[in-house]
Amino acid sequence: MFLGRIAVRGLLPERPPVAALRERLRVYRDMLREATGKELPVGARAAIMRDTFVADSEEEAARIAGGPMMDSLNFSNWRGPSVYLDPGETLPAEQEAALRKRLTYEFVRERSVYFGPPEKIVQQILHLHRETGIDSVVFKTSWSGLPHAAARESVRRLGTEVIPAVRAALRTQRIAAE
Description:
Helices cover 56% and strands 12% of the residues. The protein contains six helices and four strands, in the order βαβαααβαβα.
């Protein structure tokens, strides 16, 4: 099952965009094959972490949780923006220097953040699955400074609106493929 794995074998705690993740997962699969002789599909036995906040709109999610999430990302920004880049992508020197000092929400939002209404987040998860075959997603849903009630409401919506919709879509895809 795609969501809800208990035993995660390979968690990628970085936040690469889908294209970079796809490339890393191919390397992971090839190394696993070399080490064990097992042939697994790309994305099998792997998980990715995504900063996630469910709200009625992306603007509302960013207003409520954007600051705490960005503070967290910037606290651990010792590698700079390179972990968010697609394969072969480069940034102008000035932009890279500025992002090394402080990442912005605008820079990370489409690359690795799931903020917004349930329908948008469902589509982001399905896109991730289609492009990478990834087994599991670990949703980071709380950051220092985010009010507990806001985190709790977002997690409730993730569990009652997003995950059931993803499971239903994946079930429909499996049935159609049979």
